[in-house]
Amino acid sequence: MSNKHLGSTLDEFLHEEGIYEAAKTEAAIRVISWQIAEEMRKKGITKLEMAALMNTSRTQVDRIIKAKGNVTIETLQRAAALVGRELRLELV
Questions:
Q1: 8 Å CB contact between 56 and 45
Q2: Which of 45, 59, 63, 64 allows an S-S link to 40, with CB 3.0 to 4.6 Å?
């Protein structure tokens, strides 16, 4: 029994499975969320402090940091600004 994906790239595999765009979106959100968490750590901002700055709950900050649920671009942009960073999106 041969593996039809043997020798293919990850991108090819994801395209064949029909999940390329979803996987790419998920990866981008996870990277941005990780970067926000790292900036919070560097600046000594706790989840509770971040929640207060964002006028939201600590649970929502957890969702942002763990990239769980439906995190909007606007929410990521606000969080990035609060840790002194800028979120940039572009078409390439």
A1: no
A2: 45
Whether residue 33 contacts residue 79, with contact meaning beta carbons closer than 8 Å, is answered with no
Measured distance CA(34)–CA(44) in Å, rounded: 15
CB 54 within 8 A of CB 82: yes
Contact 89, 73 (CB under 8 A): yes
Find the angle CA(62)-CA(68)-CA(73) to the nearest 5 degrees.
90
Rounded CA-CA distance 55/21 in Å is: 32
| pLDDT reported for residue 37 | 97
pTM above 0.70, yes or no: yes
Q: In whole angstroms, give the CA distance from residue 60 to residue 71.
A: 9
